[in-house]
Amino acid sequence: MALTDRWRIFMIKPVILSLSTWLILAACGPAPTESSAPPQPTTAADTSAVPDKSNSANSLDWAGEYKGVVPCADCEGIETSLTLNMDQSYQLSTLYLGKDATAFTQQGQFEWDANGSVIRLLNQKDGPALYKVGENQLIQLDMQGKVISGDLAENYKLNKQNKAEPSLTGVRWKLTEIMGQTTATTEPDLTPYLQFAEDGRVSGFAGCNQFTGAYETDGLRLTFKPMATTQKACLNASLEQQFLTTLQGVDNYSLNDSGLAFYKARTAALLRFSAVQP
Hints:
By secondary structure, the chain is of the alpha+beta class. The chain has 2 domains: 56-160, Lipocalin, CATH 2.40.128.640; 172-276, Beta Barrel (Lipocalin). Helices cover 15% and strands 35% of the residues. The protein has helices at 3-28, 56-59, 237-248, and strands at 64-70, 78-84, 89-96, 104-112, 118-121, 130-134, 137-140, 157-160, 172-178, 181-182, 193-196, 201-205, 210-218, 221-224, 228-229, 252-256, 259-263, 271-276. It is elongated and about 70 Å long. The termini are far apart. The relative contact order is 0.10. Residues 167-273 form the DUF306 domain. Residues 1-26 form the signal peptide.
């Protein structure tokens, strides 16, 4: 064999040996770990906080009468009484002390702002129309909806009157109006009524049949559970069906000296009642 050929073989053997050694080490190496695998998509738990949607409109017992004496530019003060009702109607009475002995009274509707914290008295051409609603308090705002500052700032607040409210229980509530229509029956004994018990039960007369069921209250919120009724057939069935169906849709109420009223959300009164002794 020529010297040149021997030199080539001598140079190739180390290369082959190195390649073989590398292949053996690779085959004997550790298996790929889980961390070396491609990352898999994972679903993370949604930990974002649920926004708090509570506001004055839906979390405060705002319905009622508010009174105060607000500053006046050319009189001793303006004695103010503002009553807010659940159907978003209002009654405003103002008396200019030391100037006029006659109170000026206005009635109308009010609306909430987008945040549910400020009300606007509609159809107000003269005088303040914006009030910030707080806990048992109304704060009169300026024409731009800003809180009035300065030494007299505290005098622009109207405080809720904590009168003893009539009770749902212990009274028979006779139906006087349903869906805006005055209740008319051929006989007084056929007028629907209901009575609330302190144990969460309600019973009454629907115009034809007796009924009984359960109710729940939370502040001014009110819900009725499905009612059980007797099965007597009579001519006043249409009024009875409307009465019982409307009861199931109620979710809040108002109770004052003028009587009891049931509402759905912020709509007009669905049912109205007057109190009579059982």
